[in-house]
Design a protein that fits this description.
74 strands; mainly beta; about 1100 residues; 6 helices; eight-stranded antiparallel beta sheet; 7 domains; Jelly Rolls; twelve-stranded antiparallel beta sheet; elongated
Amino acid sequence: MAALLSAALVAGLLAWAPWNSGTPRAAKPAPEGEAGPVTAAQAAREARATERDVLVETETTESSRTFALPDGTWRTETHAVPVRAQRPDGTWAPIDARLRPTGDGTRLRPVNVPGAVEFAAGASRTAGGGKASRSASNAVDRAGTAATAVWRPTGGRSQVQPAARPGSQPAADPAVPETFLASTSYEGHTVTYTWPGELPEPAVDGNRALYREVLPGVDLLLVAREVGGFGQLLIVKDEEAARQKALRTVSYGLRSDTAAFSLDAETGGVAITDKDSDEVVGAIPTPFAWDSAGLESPEDPAAKPYTDTTTARNTFALTGLTGPEPGSATAILPATLDGGGTGSATLTLDAAATGLLTGDLVDRGEVRFPVFLDPTVERTEKGWTMAYKPYPNSNFYNGTNFSGGTDEARVGYESNTGGLSRSYWKMNFGGGIAGSTVISATWKIKNVHSWSCEARQIELWLTGSISTSTTWNNQPGKKRQLGAKSFAHGYNSSCPDAYVGYDVKSGAQEAANGSWDYLTLGLEASTETSSYSWRKFDAGSAVLTVHYNRPPQQPVNGDISNGSCNTVIGEEVIGLTDVVMSATATDLDSNLKGLRFRLWENGASTKILDKVVTGSGGSKTQTASVTVPESQLADGKTYSWDIRAEDTEGAVSTYFPDGSDPCRFTVDDTAPAAPTLTSTDFPEANSEGSNWAVEAPHGTSGTVVLDSSASATRYAIGFNSIDYTHIYLDDPAGGQTFRIDRSPVTGHLIETVTRAAKGAPVTITLKAPTAGPTYIHAYAYDAVGNRSVRSQIRTFIPSGRTDDGPGDVTGDTQPDLVVIRGDGSLYTYPGEKGGEVYGGLIASYDGTGRQTPPGHWYDAGATATTKKHALISKWGDLHPGDGLTDILARTPDGKLWIYPGDGYGSTNTDERVRVLLPDNAPAPATWDEMRTTGDVNGDGEADLMVITDAGQLWFLSGYTAGAFAEAVKLLADGTWAGRDLINVADVDLDGTADMLWRNPSNGNMYIRHGKPAAGGKGLDPVSLSTAAKSREGVDTPYGTSWTATNIDQIIAIPDTSGDGIPDLWAREASTGNIRVYHPSKTNTNPPVKTVMTADWSSYLALT
């Protein structure tokens, strides 16, 4: 009988649960062709795109869910206990602990709970299995759930005497083999419980299986818990059953192939550890016993205990199943363990020592039956527990010792039994919250019972961790109070059940800063001597909601120009030059703001640089740089620098570099001497402009020679002060006397580099990028990056071609810039590919060789009938048919002339030709703007568009040998006023010219699309007269911010970028700098770069 009782008491007691449920499981791969679970990155993208919160499916666990928010932040909701479970197919579903038979009828299983749980289906189950019979009296509630309301009779006795027990089980036969009672498995651990005899078929009510009369007057209740695993409760129905000898001590076995069992001498519980790692994976808290005298609301005069056990239905309704209540007689079950340290152990409980089965209390009638015995096993990770003062060394982890596991946490004092309780919750906190910035955090829980509706203050504390060793005498340490609230809910309809919330942001931030795996919170009454403080809470309702922002990652590839990151003072030495700091940062939340760059002199508290820079790449990954001017550095000083990433919510990364020391460099300002730069092929231009590089015309090669002092370790050589190619001397890695690092733009022009020996000069064969005035520039550098002053050769490159290109006056096919400077001189600035310009040359002379002869470009004494400066325009060859681009000029005296190009970017003014106009054409003296267009009407000759002072728009065509044959007035007086003509060219590449114009007042740029002439050849100029007559019927917007106060001059030029679309040079009004634009078919686009940094504000005309 003892063996049988032992098994009945404990064979199913282990409330085994997924002790690693806080760790996300890897999502199962989706079938081919189907989408898999939504990852964090996918959720973040979808949240931004849809502007709604999106669940991160791959981070969902049994107790937590994480959402990506549209602003790049995150929200994680964590419950104290599992609220969902993963099905075999990997999908998640709500917890459903209702018991259902397996296919072969030999087991009962909960529908969907964390882990695997099975109960015996009853009737002669050997350990090896076997077919079970089905009893008609096996009451299985298939409609109920684990949370259904408990049925109790509305009339009749509150306590009944036991009836005869004809169906009671006989004493166990020791020869009967062990049979299966229950098992649970999770994460590789399986624990099996066996019964030394036959079991009756259980009555099933939702998640509960009741094995009736396992001993005379004793029932065994197994409960599949929603948190995972199960609980066990032995129900001793009356005093007669309690006096059985078999109940004096209770023994049961624990079996596992992967876990071992050991007794905790202090609490009387059992620790369950992994055999290989000794990691604690579960525990049996202090076994506990109580009677049925307690009441949840003892102050209610109508409340009475319900104790009828005559039927299974009545037993399921016992009030004592909720656990000890105020007024209950309670006691600890002392325990011993045989087989400790192994996976096969026997736990023996001294039930007689409780005094609740026999003895004075029973004799005096102070014990009310049924009596409940509840040893239970729990996991050791997140969960909750109570510290109960009447039993200062007892553990109640996850509500154990209450009805096989209560779901109600107790807080405060109750006077009936002098019970005082505090409760604690261990909330999972790992994953993405670690290291984040907490925006808000709340913890809420449902108050389901109070002593009355009178509010009392309940405090919430941040505490140390809890475990199966937590008791009243071993409470977690208090760190600090997070909040206190007065409330009372759950007494009656006047103060019904309700949630209570606390602001726990400060505690959550501390946990995030410390990368805690758990956040442990404790509730206790402010006044622990008044019954009005007594509260019960739905322990499983506790939920922690954290809204947080994950910090960016530490920047990578932190670097400085002419150096690298070195934390040791004195090891990184650079020259006195601008220092460019750069790095790349990533923010997985895609709300990266930028990178903060800091630089300071060693020992100084003031930062030279402390600036956030938004780099290129977007909100997820950015590469940024910042320049520290050499003027902020000094020779011989040591400087420190570091870089961190920052996001839009204020979260920051750690500083690059790793460790406590920043990067450092020391400045050495001992520059090498300027290199000697010589060439016979590219002679230095004289003031007269007569010695051109005739041995190396454009398109052919010439040589230069570089030499310097011994301190030089490399040279930089380039054209027109841009795009240098670097030549490193005495390359030790390659065993060579030099190494070339070519410019990606002009490096192809450096054809060969030769050096006879170490220390010898370097000979370079190269091609000039343009015809006309060209500068060859060179620098020498020493080992720490100090740069010499610049050496240069200014040379004139003759054209190597017969014909000029459109807009080209130097013969290299690239459009050039011709200007009238403020002093009235005409200059040519050769253009390079992409629209670069640099050096210029005087572009007019007379037959005597005099440069800039007067009267052609500027008249300082102009009267009201004349103009101060000429209007100039160029496109191609106008006269005398030599293939060279000529300049059309309306001179200050009001006449129109052709100034023939000489192929070198200049013109002999003595050779100018007067242009004849049709009789109906407006006099050139009245012209305000003119644009040569090339041939746009298809007659093979250049055309001209003119704006008069009166605001008329004219189109001149039929040009032949210095004369225009036809003049068409497109707009009458005043119509064009307030507009600037920019270009007449094919902008959208449809084969027909368009008109580009701007409103200088509002800054809008427009295209007026032209129509082809009748027959489809060339432009019909009338289609450009008004928007209504154009191809689209309206002027099409092409750009904004082109006001005269922003851009005061715009020069249309043929394509320089290679896309076929005409480009623009523009003068910035505030600086006089020249910018180049590479428009598209539909927009001017932003400026590509500034190509001339000199102030050209005084220049009078540009073409």
